[in-house]
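User: Show me a protein chain along with its predicted structure.
Assistant: Here is one chain, sequence first, then structure tokens.
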Amino acid sequence: MLVYHGSSVEVIHPDITRSRLDIDFGSGFYTTQDIHMAKKWACNRNESILNIYELELEDFEVKTLGVDEEWLYYVMENRTGRTGLFKMPFDDSKYDIIIGPTADDKLFNVIDLFSDGFISSENAIKVINCMNYSNQLVIKNQAAANRIRFIESKRLHGLEKDNLRVQFKNDNIEASKKARELIRKMNGGIKR
């Protein structure tokens, strides 16, 4: 399968040690099968590079997540720095690759409301399942990262990059509106 990584540089050999810990699925090399999502990740940087890879899943230990409590608590625990504030639903060190929804800005508004105690996990999951989201494939260890095959990179620039930035911003605004509307409909919701 083809996977994409949006970055500010060409990444021929992914290095897991360069990853942040406080993101959706913790430390790892983040890719997606959604080329549009990867381009949006790249366009938020001064230099915008779309890296393209081939990845075969057959020889890997893969954990696939859906929008449910397991995914929600896993994202929250990683994003809060594994402080124990949220329960870690599984041991991610057992997996080479974790696949699941991207908690980008569109979804994170809802996740934020849940973590702040404004809505329940059940309502957060219901709202997120009503929204459009992309999946990410996160390579969790260097041995697995060494087996991804780099194909090429493409520089994003000019009108394409400008249009992606505008679309990214508009998508987030629309998703926030939709989330607020859905939350208000649930049990009287909240006004925020």
